[in-house]
Amino acid sequence: MFLFLVAVLVAWAREARSPGSYLIYVGTYTGAASKGIYVLRFEPGTGKWSSAAIAAETANPSFLAIDPSRGFLYAANEVSGYKGEHSGSISAFAIDHKTGNLTHLNQVSSHGAGPCYVALDRTGKYVLVANYDAGNVAVFPVLPDGRLAEASAVVQHAGHGPNAERQEGPHAHQIDVTPDNRFAIVSDLGLDRLFVYRFDVAKGTLAGSDPAFASVTPGAGPRHFVFDLKGKFVYAINEMSGTITAFGYDAARATLSSLQTISTLPADFKGENTSAEIAIHPSEKFVYASNRGADTLAILAVEPGKGSLKLVENVSAGGKTPRNFAIDPTGKYLLAANQDSNRIVIFRIDPVTGHLTATGQTLEVPSPVCIKFLAAD
Fold first, then answer.
1. What's phi and psi for 19, nearest 5 deg?
2. Rounded distance, CA 369 to CA 346, Å?
3. How confident is the model at residue 19 (pLDDT cuts 50, 70, 90)?
4. How large a percentage of the chain has pLDDT more than 70?
């Protein structure tokens, strides 16, 4: 009887810690069908999903980020010509947790064309942006009301890679801080490098580190990367080669050491492909990647302690051009944003094998390219 009561109390405690529902924000490429950022509601207990509704109208919000306080959302407006400049912009919004609606706060120049990634530092005091076309990164202080101030740092990359068509110059594709908030890492597709910068949280500035970068295979084109939960390994997906490079990460020295490069593609695939997104499961047992062209989701098993990967299988993404995907915070579902099919396909994750099974549920969203979860009140 005692053990039964303990089990009941443990289950109750877990339920109490779990939010009743999540808001799901979806960034899109705007045009004839899409108007901006969409919002849905998800109840993990029942597996129910609402239909999508417009949360805010804004141009090409191709990547989103939510601040640690859960009060504000920031969008990279992937356009050029902002206020007459050859630049995109970053938009700040306040979040209404009851309705999911977003209230526009302000918009600032991203200081470069083609902003494609936006993130916040661990304190929520700064927004960091990667400008793909310009090949630079920028940092913006967050004001107390959530608005963005002018940039506190802009760093320009220079050089080129071996692919004359895709790597004619630098193309910064992601910037994110390290788990300890002391450094920022930038993946540059045009230069085949992951740059490491010292991040000054007091000033919002970036300074060169030593060593300054880690390299991937020439012509691979690093796009996105993700840390494991302990901050010991970094996994970078290479867009052009359809591979993942695993790095060991030394937090004390902020150094990346290449461990392995492994394909994300089916063995028999021979067409054109550009890989896109990468994520690690909350259990840290599996890494997932998306392949545009093959239109698959790759499942890779993580070797405990060593960080190396083994390709388990590829499954159909359920649509065309799976650009971005997200694993829900409970670790039970994966949502794949199929950009050219105008829908998000929902998969159930097997916690033992990592296998993805299509639930048969789809969410209709025009040109979806980014998915973010937020615990609702």
1. -65, 150
2. 15
3. low
4. 93
Mean pLDDT of 278-300: 98
Structure tokens of 253? 């020295």
Which carries the bigger pLDDT value, residue 56 or residue 11?
Answer: 56
- Residue among 207, 168, 167, 218 nearest 184 (CA): 207
Q: Is residue 96 a contact partner of residue 114, using CB atoms and an 8 Å limit?
A: no
Summarize the confidence of residues 297-306 as an average pLDDT.
97
Q: Average pLDDT, whole number, for the chain?
A: 93
Within a 13 Å sphere around the CA of 165, how many CA atoms are in the beta-carbon half?
1
Polymer length in residues for the chain: 377
Closest alpha carbon to 139 in 94, 175, 188 = 175
Sketch out the chain's domains with CATH numbers. 25-55+275-377 (2.130.10.10)
d(C-alpha 334, C-alpha 46), whole Å: 16
Show Cβ contacts of residue 11 under 8 Å, excluding neighbours closer than 6 positions. Answer: none
Question: Starting from the edge strand earliest in sequence, which strands make up the sheet with 356-364, in order?
Answer: 322-327, 333-338, 343-349, 356-364
Partner residues linked to 260 by β-bridges: 246
CA-wise closest residue to 187 among 150, 226, 147, 228: 226
For residue range 54-84, what is the model confidence (pLDDT) as tens digits?
999 999 999 999 999 999 999 999 986 555 4
Instruction: Give the Cα separation of 317 and 294 in Å (integer).
Output: 9
The CA-based angle 62-65-67, given to 5 degrees, is 160
Q: Tell me if 172 sits within 8 A of 119, measured CB to CB.
A: no
Q: Can you tell me the distance from the alpha carbon of 225 to that of 247, in angstroms, rounded to the nearest whole number?
A: 10
Question: Which of 350, 327, 324, 349 lies closest to 337, judged by CA?
Answer: 324
From 311, 315, 377, select the one nearest 346 (Cα to Cα).
Answer: 315
CA distance 233 to 248: 5
How many CA atoms lie within 13 Å of 86's alpha carbon, on the beta-carbon side? 4
Instruction: Give whole-number Cα distances, 68 to 123, 126, 138, in Å.
Output: 7, 11, 19
